[in-house]
Amino acid sequence: MNMENRFFEKPILNSPYRYSARHWELDPSGQPTQRIIEKRRRAEFITPIVNNLGSYGRWGFAEFTEAYQIEADFEARIEAEFNKLIEGRMKG
After folding, report:
1. Which of 2, 4, 46, 67 is the most buried (most CB within 10 A)?
2. Is the pLDDT higher at 50 or at 5?
3. How far apart are CA 76 and CA 82, in angstroms?
4. Residue 56 banded pLDDT, cuts 50, 70, 90
């Protein structure tokens, strides 16, 4: 992790007592771009995970935007990732 990364120096931009007026921009994989956007973030579930240690396996990123579809989408995503893992083990 780059300790000069402004996102990690100050991840919370807004006061808990005021209307959220800005947010950190995230790239398609959920990682900070170092840009601050001067408006509210779109309502969605965001789960950015950074694993630079390399000792806990490979971490993934999944974005779920449909509240009533999350459980089914999550289950499908886990199953697909598990199947990829099994196929990779069988080939190697």
Report:
1. 46
2. 5
3. 10
4. low
